[in-house]
Amino acid sequence: MLQSKHILIGVTGGIAAYKICTLIRDFKKSGAEVKIIATPNALNFVTKLTLQNLSQNEVYVEEFDVKNWKPEHISLADWADIMLIAPATANTISKIAQGIADNLLTSVACAFSKKIIMAPAMNCNMWQNETIKDNIKILQKRGIEILEPENGFLACGYMGKGRLCSSDKIFNAIEEALNYSQMLKGQKIVITAGGTIEEIDPVRYISNYSSGKMGLALAKSAYDMGADVVFITTKDFDVPFKKVMVKSAQDMQNAVNDEFDSSNYIIMAAAVADYRVKEHSEQKIKKGEQDSITLEFVKNPDILAELCNRKLFNCSETNKNEILRFAQNDVQAEESHDVKSACNDKPVIVGFCAESENLLENAKAKIAKKGCDFLVANDISRKDIGFGVNDNEVTILNKNGDILKLDKAPKNIIARKILECINMK
């Protein structure tokens, strides 16, 4: 997997810097090209000559040591397929989290648009520092993978969590990330998230408990897998890909329709309100003398069903003519079906359903009624999965009747498995 891959390693000023030498050698033995950025303090622990000989490339230290017209931090960022920072000190972690670019390594990290993996190493008390914890969360939110340090005896004499994780763990993470980042390369994926908001008047609305976390996890995983992501959401998340903010079901339908023709996958993870008020009040509805009021509701568009219908009839004229020819000439049904399948292959449409009872029965009925390629069913009767929490447990059904159960796991893990499943259609 690493043959001819470009791995950029940032080495910072920690005692664990010497351990990177073994890692460089392993990457080279696996056929990867390796370049090293060392902070000036890193060279107090491992020599530039050692890093240079192991990587068989120049070691970069000074930010303005420009050999050609292109600034070093940009050319290195463009060259690399992935960036590893190990050991990552508390200082470097905090700088990158706050967008400080005061040396070559932090400048490259700020300019790097691909996958970054960090392997922190520091004193156990530093690792437990609240500021460091906050900065780690910021980095993770931006999609940077953190390989947490291990427990053990530390160079400072303490016993605790702070040791650089094993070279094998880092190597495997790099290998997995490089393979993972190519799985959906060249594919456009539209993902919806959050509960739609149906206004009653300027201060009141109808919605649901959806936090948008599952949709966000799917969007981030798709992005990490190399997809061109369009994230249509009612929740304002900070994401590194295209985000389209919407409010109502009709807004969401319009946004999805705009992306339909150019999409390879559409994943409807949003919780779309089934109804909206028939007459939205432009002014706040005042409390009168009456003890109750009546609101009349009308159905919202069934976005999932309409997308499936659009896909069904979105064949090119050529394919339509072929299907017509088969029908007129009484061609065998399976041959006609093959043409229809080829005609309707794009986009793959994935629906979600939230059920409080009879999960599988309701899911089977829904996929048959809607006509989507896949349906992901959630059990919302449980408090430990689904709405508003970080874990989920789902059942995936496809239009051929196959069923896959994904046991309880963090939503990012569930998201990845869903994407792997629909990509193997």
Describe it.
By secondary structure, the chain is α/β, with parallel strands linked by helices. The chain folds into 2 domains: 6-180, Rossmann fold (3-Layer(aba) Sandwich), CATH 3.40.50.1950; 188-423, Rossmann fold. It is built from 15 helices and 20 strands. The strands form 5 sheets. The chain has an 8-stranded mixed β-sheet with strand order 13-12-9-14-17-18-19-20, sandwiched between helices. The chain has a 6-stranded parallel β-sheet with strand order 3-2-1-4-5-6, sandwiched between helices. Mean pLDDT is 88; it is low at 330-342.
Set down the secondary structure blueprint:
Elements: E1 6-11, H1 20-29, E2 33-38, H2 48-55, E3 59-60, H3 72-79, E4 82-88, H4 90-97, H5 104-111, E5 115-120, H6 124-127, H7 130-141, E6 145-146, E7 150-153, E8 159-163, H8 167-180, E9 188-193, E10 198-201, E11 204-206, H9 213-224, E12 228-233, E13 242-245, H10 249-259, E14 265-268, E15 275-277, E16 297-299, H11 303-312, H12 317-328, H13 333-343, E17 348-355, H14 359-370, E18 374-379, E19 391-398, E20 403-410, H15 411-423
Helix pairs in contact: 1-2, 1-8, 3-5, 4-7, 9-15, 12-13
